[in-house]
Amino acid sequence: MELSAFTGSAGTLLDIRNIKAFRGATQVFDAFSLQIDEGCSTAILGPNGSGKSTLMKLISGELHPCFSPDSSLSLFGRNRWNVWDLRSRLGIVSHDLQHEYLASAPGLNVVLSGFYSSIDTWRNQVFGDREYRKADEVMAMLGIGDLRSRAFGSLSTGEQRRFLLARALVNDPGTLLFDEPTSGLDLKASFLYLELLRKLMRSGKTVLLVTHHVHEIPPEIRRIVMLREGRVLADGSPGEMLSSAMLSALFDCPLQVVMQSGSCQVFPAFQDGPDISL
Ligand SMILES: Nc1ncnc2c1ncn2[C@@H]1O[C@H](COP(=O)(O)OP(=O)(O)OP(=O)(O)O)[C@@H](O)[C@H]1O
Ligand SMILES: [Mg+2]
Questions:
Q1: For ligand 1, atom 7, which residue shows the shortest CA distance?
Q2: What pTM did the predictor assign?
Q3: pLDDT band, residue 10 (cuts 50/70/90)
Q4: Is the pLDDT of residue 168 over 50?
Q5: How many separate domains does the chain show?
Q6: In this structure, what CATH number is given to the domain that contains residue 101?
């Protein structure tokens, strides 16, 4: 990793050059590079095990790439951030967070914990009128104000997801990072949650969306990076990437794409069904 204070140019959200990264004994990335500009909402699309969550952990700082003098990873033009400064630039909503949260924490505490990027709130943390007002405002926007006193563990998956989004939004970050945003949500909750994502993008937020569900890529996404086995298979506009040929190659399976109202639906294109013996 390069150790100079600043790398990348202004206006660059993410600049990864030539990195190598492991999860346990598994090497997920080798000589991996990716640049994303601020303002360009982007989906990272790839099959199970392609390295999407690993990439997300590298961006959030939960995982570090291997040290090498010719590799670098910078966010917003800087390669070193503390959590405190980063929370006002980048909001993260992930499954891991949903699982890590204490079941007994009241919804309001989950939201307030965003001010400290902590799991739950602690006695030494100070919250004034400004913090409570902001938490109220964000909960009202997401329709969860009435659930503020409920224990996190007693909330439905969809409600929990909204509380974690509220936790990220209290800091007004310009960029939001989502890992599989609709997993575990029923149809209505998925559509409502995706509508929220769209509203956030229309209000000027940049979204990085990590997913293997093609249908959860909204029309506001401007770029799709296809990830396969830790490498960028293809990278371009949704018009270029969301074709039957490209998706069949990405998922290594014959697929047919149908576009409807700007959203992509995918169907199997097997002649006689896949060869499965039970
Ligand atoms: N803790 C770990 N120890 C060892 N290998 C791991 C660990 N976590 C992930 N891996 C491996 O790293 C690779 C990339 O995993 P990753 O979770 O980034 O994939 P993904 O694209 O997010 O998949 P999914 O769509 O299933 O969430 C996989 O081969 C996975 O088995
Ligand atoms: Mg994943």
A1: 23
A2: 0.89
A3: very low
A4: yes
A5: 1
A6: 3.40.50.300
